[in-house]
Each structure stands twice: as structure tokens, then as C-alpha cells.
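ok so for the tutorial part 2 we go from a plain amino acid sequence to predicted C-alpha cells. step 1 is just haveing the sequence, like this:
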Amino acid sequence: MKEIGKERSLDVYFENFGRPTPRKSRSKSNKHSTMQLIETSSSEPNSALIKGTIARTDPISGLPHLDELTHHLIAVATASLKFNSPDVVLAALIHDYFKPVFDFKNGKWYHFITDPDLYSQLLSEFDDSTNISNVANISQWHHKRKNCNEICQIENSELISTLETSVPFILPTQREYTVVHHLRVLGKYRMFILALLKEKLAKTLSEKYSERFQKILGVSRIRYEYRPVNSADTLEDAGRIIKENDWRIEVKDNMMVIPLPSRFHKDAFYFEYYEGTEVVLDVDTKAKAIRGVKVPFGKALSTVYLTGSQDAYLLYVDAGFGSLSLEYLLDDVLSDLKQSLSEKKRKNAFEYVDLDKVVKSLSSDLHSDELCALCGEPGEPIESHEKVSSILKAKFTDTWLLLTCGTSVCPVCKLGFEIEELFRGSGMNKHIVQEALLEDYHLIHSIPIFGKEHFMKSISSKIWLELLSEIYYSLHNSKELQKITKRKEWVVKFYLNPKVLFYPYVADLIPQVLTVALRHPKKKFVLQSGLHSNIVFPGSEKDLTPEEFSAMRRFYISHPSTGIHLLQKIRNVYSPVFGVPNVEIRKGGVSRARKRKG
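step 2 — the prediction. this is what the C-alpha cells look like for a chain of 598 residues:
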């Protein structure tokens, strides 16, 4: 990796404008997540990537769960698809419907109304396909300890219930509402295959979940719209506003639209869960804000646990369609890869791949006295007919001397090696998103029971934090945000000072990824890419770390007029592979051509 010259470093850039004041060390009682109670909402940021609501609190400790409400609702609803009941699924989609009103009585967060007329109005679209009274009962009484209903069962499961507070997650296991695949991922090729599998899993799940919702409720997309009801301090107030304005859950173009009453939202904001593959931001250029986000089902409901350097667990919500086998996913991966090859390469691609052996090797079920030369797992000797032709192999004779006939290689590394060879002409960028860091939590509304410094986390929490990283990295794919000019300087705030609103909290966001393969055309893009975890921007020169990102955030807040130049400096120093927008800085003066013409 190249060494960055002092003249190009950000240190020099900071010094030119005055170094940002370093943070003082904090005592245990004043950590980076210390709450600062603020009575008014005047401090709401205009650089929030999302505007949601805290999902729930722990019934025993009272600590809030680190999850957003609509994400919690879609996770529970997807798990409820196992019951094959329209009543149960519809109830799951709205079971915490009134939480954004934040009505507290006697220290309890009330979030249901017993008015049957209100539910009849809200659910009138489903009058013919569901029993509205039953839907309302399931939704209203999901916290009953006795006669625990379907939603109650899901919320008490490992998917939603608390797994940890400050210690690492308990290793996930196969439970009633989750499916888990255990993989051995020693070495770069195995991590590369893991990244391909995770990508394919998310895409496949989006299709499967969409099909299940279509079958049970007749819709393939779910959209939650937070709508301001700022004058509502109680559930009764919110109910009156809903009735007066004739709010209804509607179906439009195969999409269910669920309006959520929110006491603290100033403007409408939506989350749409759909069958696609990419996170899509809806940007309001006039308001200079993000008004909604579309999230693929697969990315919202799956994750990968990395435990040390040897094991990984692919995990997703069980919606009743059975387990997606690793062999099925790998077959799809190879099929997609073959389609992207030239006809000449496609003919013999993966000719000698035995998927059964690859899966056994991934799952640590392949037994052999021979060890893989690349990862150390049980392997098999390479036979003369299995050697794939190399692109520019003369430049990598050391690798080919290692993989001569008779050398033992495991089926997983052999597959990863062949993919690398076939795509070495163009290279690949592959990464796995990691949990975003949320710093400097503080309350922007004073609410009973909220104000504690600690959050509880579940599997759903982990997925949501990874989703926040996905949302940040989707910024540069947005048409409105992918290029920054002087006229669009307002875009800088989303890149350098991203925030997350989940009422009543606001937090600073730092995204993170684990890089597996970086595009190095004509090179061994897997072997020559380091496995770098917990980084913000993977760079061709060097990686940008969360600590450096925090320093740049503080510098940008102190010197907002330097935002465009700071982004340009990031491009120059780090050469990020992805995640940073194109920056256009027009210098003053008249061009030479114009001077000559004049």
C-alpha cells in the first residue's frame, strides 16, 4: 500500500484552516453516547438520512431497543407470514401503530386504541379479505402475557428480544423465526465467496418475501408514511385527527401504504420495503432534504455474523418458504457470473466445479488428510485437467507454481480462484456492510422513561445498524447527490455530517464496511486486496477510518464553507473505491481559449 506524502495529508489541510479542537477525555459516566436533554425540537438536524421512531423498550429493564419502528414492524410482519393468515400479517404490520404519538401514562408507553370505528376506517380496504375485528384484537392485545398471541410469540423470540447490552452477541442458532447457515471463512477466497453468497441471499430473499406478501395480502411492497400530528399529545387526540382527515391504509400499484401518526415529525417521511436489490433515496431538491428511502426486503431482513477470523453465520428471517440451501444460492451465483462473461469464456466456465463438495467444504463437512494450500482447511489434490487458463499468468508465476498438479486445494478456494481468473480483466468490488456507529446520542424531545445512556440490541438491531451503513453508501448512487457543485453545496452535509433521527433521539452516523475485493484490472483482485474491516471508505491509497471520519466531521462543522474542498481532499488523499461523490470545483478567471478569442 502506498505511503501518503506529508504534503498530501489531511493534517496539512486542517492546519491551514486551524486544527479542530480535540475532544477531551471523558469519564465512564460521560461517554460518547451521553444524553443531552433538550426541551425543544429546534436542534433537529437538516442532514438526517432517515427520520423515524425508536422501536420499543425492554419490558423488564425499561431500556430502549436500538431499532427503528418501521423496521421492527416489517421484521415482525415478515416472521408472521409463517402463520399463513391475512389477519395475523395485517395485524403484525400495524401492531405498534400508535407508538409515534408517545402517549405515556403511569410510566407506560400506550400504543393502542380500542375504538372499533377507527379500525373499521383504517382497514376498510381489507374489509372483504380479512376479519377487521380479529385484526384489531390481535394488534391491540399482543402484549398479553396470558394467551400469548402470534405477535407476542414473535416479539419474545430471539429475532426481536434482547441478546446483549454491552457484551458481544450470543452466537445465533436456528430458532423458530430465523434461518442460519454456518460457514468456515478462513482466507481471502472464502471471504470472497461469503460476500457473493450474502449478495445473492439478499436478492433472493427480496423476491421470496415479496412473493409471500403477495400471496397472503395481495401486495408486494409495504410503505410506511410518517405524517405529522403535532397537536396530538394523547392517543385520543391522534384518533380524532385520523378520523377527521379520513386516514386509511390504501393499496396503490401493488403497494400497501400505511400512514403513521407522528407527534414529532415536522414533515412527512416514508420507508418503503420492496422487492428490489438497491437502497434508493428520495431526495427533495427544493427542501434540500431526504423525504424517504426505499429498502429491499432482503437487506432489511438478513445479516452475516463474523465470529473471529474463522466462522461466519448467514442469518435471515424465516417467512415460511423453507430454508434456502447454500447449494441453491451458489448455483444462482455461478449462473449470474457466467451470464456476465464473454461467450468464449462462458463455454468452459466452472466446468469442473462440484457444488456438493463446495458446500461441504464451506460447512466444514468435508473430510480429508490433505490441507488446502490457501486456507488450511481440508482439501483435495489438483488434477491436471482442472487447471483453468490464466490471464497474464506469466506475471504471477509464484501463484501458479503454488497451484501445480498435485497441490491440495479446498473446493471453496478453488472456486474463488477460478472466479478471480475469469474476471481478472475487469476486476470486482466486493464488500460486506457492517454495523454503523452511532455517536453523541441526545434527546431532542423530553419524554418520560427516555434519557438513559444505554440501549439494548437484538438480531433486528444488528440488521438495522447495517442498514444505516447501506443507506449512507447509497448516497453517491442517487442522481441528485452523486455530483457536487457550488450550486449544490447543500449536498455536502449528508456526506460529512450524516445524522440519524429516531425520535426522540438524534445521533451522529459513521458507516462501516469490510472490504473483500477491490477492482484491480489485470491483477489478482482477491489475493491483492486486504481484508479490511471497520473502515468508512476503502481507498486505493489508504483506507479512511471511523476516527478520521469523526475528525473530518468536527472540522466540517467548524468550517462549513470548506465542505466541497474537504470532499475533494478526501478523493485526492484516499482515492476511495466507492462512497464519495464526484466533486466539481470551478476556479475563477478567464480560460486561455477565451483570452485568445478575445
